[in-house]
Design a protein that fits this description.
Number of strands: 12
Structural class: mainly beta
CATH architecture: Sandwich
Low-confidence stretches: none
CATH class: Mainly Beta
Shape: globular
Number of helices: 0
Helix content: under 10%
Number of domains: 1
Order of helices and strands: EEEEEEEEEEEE
């Protein structure tokens, strides 16, 4: 299985969008992204969910380069960020690292976009 690297887009309003494209059952994990200094993050998941496709948004406070113990993050509505259909949610927690992870299903091909508004820095 290959890890899908993210791409970075700087938008006209100086916000950032990180994209993991073509996550599939054989390439189901996204490259972890260290983004803890940004408090506000919104995730958008879309594409072909195949049969039973599930995309989790995971976080970890492990050191960069390590992501063995990631856990599914929550949205601001306190529901797990585990998508079985297209959706967009604000991420509640602010772990050191964040990544998408395809946890179930067959025949899916999904894109995950993580948007960080400008001027959005924590402490």
């Amino acid at each position: 299985m290959a890890t899908i690297n993210y791409t970075i887009q700087r938008n006209d309003d100086d916000s950032l969008t990180f994209t993991w494209a073509n996550l599939t059952p054989t390439d189901n994990d996204g490259q972890p992204l260290a983004l803890s200094r940004f408090v506000e993050k919104t995730v958008h998941v879309y594409g072909n969910f195949g049969t039973g496709g599930t995309m989790q948004i995971q976080g970890s406070n492990e050191a960069p380069g390590a992501f063995a113990n990631g856990v599914t993050l929550d949205g601001v509505n306190d529901a797990a960020l585990s998508f079985t259909a297209a959706g967009i949610e604000t991420v509640k927690e602010s772990p050191h690292q964040i990544r998408p992870f395809g946890s179930a299903g067959t025949g899916y091909s999904l894109t995950v976009k993580l948007h960080v508004p400008r001027g959005n820095k924590g402490l």
